[in-house]
Amino acid sequence: MPEEKLYYRLEDLIVIGETKAEIVSDWLAMDIDAIEKVMQEPGILQRYPRDPDGLPAR
Amino acid sequence: MRSRVASSLALAALVAAPLALAQDAPLYTSDFPPEEFASRRAKVYDAIGADGIAFLQGAAAPEGYLRFRQANDFYYLCGVEVPHAYLLLDGASRRATLFLPHRNERRERSEGKVLSADDAALVTKLSGVDAVSSTDLLGETLARYGQRGATKAVFVPLQPAEGLSVSRDGALRAVGETGSDPFDGRPSREGVLVRNLRDRYPWVEIRNLTPVLDAARLLKSPREIALIKRATRLACLSIQEAMRSTEPGIYEHELDGVSRFVYYRHGAQGEAYYSLVASGENAWYPHYASGKRMMKEGEMVLMDHAPDVGYYMSDITRMWPVSGRFSADERELYGFYLATYRAILKAIRPGVTKQAVMEEAADEMERVVAGTRFSKPIYEKAAKEFVKSWRESAKRAASGTRSGCRRTTWGRATRFNPGWSSPSSRSSACRKRSCTTGSRT
Prior knowledge:
Helices cover 21% and strands 19% of the residues of chain A. Chain A contains two helices and two strands; from the N terminus they run ββαα. Helix content of chain B is 44%, strand content 15%. Chain B contains 14 helices and 15 strands. In chain B, a hairpin with a 4-residue loop joins strand 2 (86-90) and strand 3 (95-100). The longest helix of chain B is centred in the middle third of the chain and has 24 residues, at 222-245. Classes of the chains: A alpha+beta, B alpha+beta.
């Protein structure tokens, strides 16, 4: 959507077998509720916080 | 002073136990047995015929402190990970000869053992190639084929080699960019090889091995699929961890760090491509990769990243709200896009052409649009235009075309992209093929 410069993209990995297609990356949250649920959990960055002297002044 | 003592101690150790292997590191891949490499070479013999030979140049040693990574096609045919190696496949005898440099003892003392021409018995045992020779004998070996007169053609991969984070597209682009630089203009490595062959053996016809290899690599074996699945798992784990780690005020490069942590601690040899972490308006640029921006409350972030796991890769993209909650507008827009994306996923199955997939997805997309109440006319307009252009691309989509073409963009809407390790097919029914699918609006 050029007016608001909005752009959406999703990509998944599918293995095509003899009788069916398997979406190997299906378990990675894609639905809105699933994403919001995952985001409530703390991540690596929260367990290992940024170092105050590590980043350049911007 | 210390280094002199250290080097004399090391020298003493070397003299005392010249046959002891000090390091405990595998010298050959355990991802594929020699038989699998041999069956791949068999396809090449079939393609080149009894009056052809195939000749491949392996990757050069990297500059600086980078680990060596073999070129994809070379690895595909023999699994050998030694810099400046060559592989010769004889179509008449159906034998594979590997040419390696001689042992560099000084280098080995510093970096550990590297397989060389002086390890012929070990190399044939590990890899299953039929013979091992040294690269200084390449010239006369090739000349002998001319003397016999039976060999009509040398098949060489003419497309540039793929490497670490270098896809076929990337390699081709680099050839163009170097050529455009008025104070550079170097020919590609493949171009230099071909020129060498033409200058030395002008009687031999040079033919392109790339289509043969592309066709062979198109269909994946169970072990290849297992590696692609491992790469996919790591890509998913890393993006999931990036989702958890996201909050307003973090920089795009912090998510890159998260992702690379997941890959490297699990033994990946690198990235399939640099991470694309695009927050806010940066997502508008499909391959924005600078990573320097701080992400803010109220925006979405797009992340597209995957590892290189033993030369096999994946390609996964997700988007999420920086704040952790989708706004009402984002729920509407992302939700619509997701519905169209799921329409494509649902249509992908064995035994259908690309065109049929697109048309079936277009039907479903039109149903979604008909059943959606958009909150803004601008959203409705964008949604309808997307579906319209998708429908038009579906009509234009060729079906049943030649296999072995690479990452293909059709319309401007979708890519079928079977990981970055191997070319994609624009074609029809595919079996045991791994592909990624994406669509854009």
